[in-house]
Amino acid sequence: MEGDPKKDVAISPLPEDEWAKVCGRASTLSISRFAQIHEPVKDELLFFRGIAGENANYIGNFGTDVILSGYCSQEKHDTGDGEIFEVLWKGGQASVTSGTDSSVRDRVLYDNPAGFSGSLVWNTRFVELGCDLSTWTPDDAIITGLLRRYDEATETLLVWRIEHVRAWL
Predict the structure, then answer these.
(1) Which residues have C-beta within 8 Å of that of residue 88, sequence separation ≥ 6?
(2) Alpha-carbon distance 108 to 99, whole Å?
(3) 110-130: pLDDT as tens digits
(4) Structural domains of the chain, ranges and CATH numbers in brackets
């Protein structure tokens, strides 16, 4: 495993025999899905999937029960710097979508973002492309950053800009 403690990020090779076990249920991401630079239009919808630590529960001898959650938010205006941008996160003010299965809806917590680090942040390009659900598809989205951590003081998630992720890769 290669890691960079200053960046809090690592890459780990996946042996072919292990990939063969999941390749029917998973897919790789082409580098073409990674934006060249972070430059979404104002008020663009940003999306990531992650596992908040509060939604991962150890359940005895049978392993774990994990709720993988998708989150949509926006970049906080006039924040960030050359390394990071900030995504709005107000603990406890998130809402569960109507399409969420009731067995999950009753158990999911969304107060604590601890555990999201390492999640890829997607620029949905929904606003950029006109907010038209009849023409927009998830294939229009591009990766725009890597979630690093939550900053309690600003109530934002700090995201490493894609141009730095690409340089590191």
Answers:
(1) 73, 74, 75, 76, 155, 156, 157
(2) 13
(3) 666 777 788 899 999 999 999
(4) 34-168 (2.40.10)
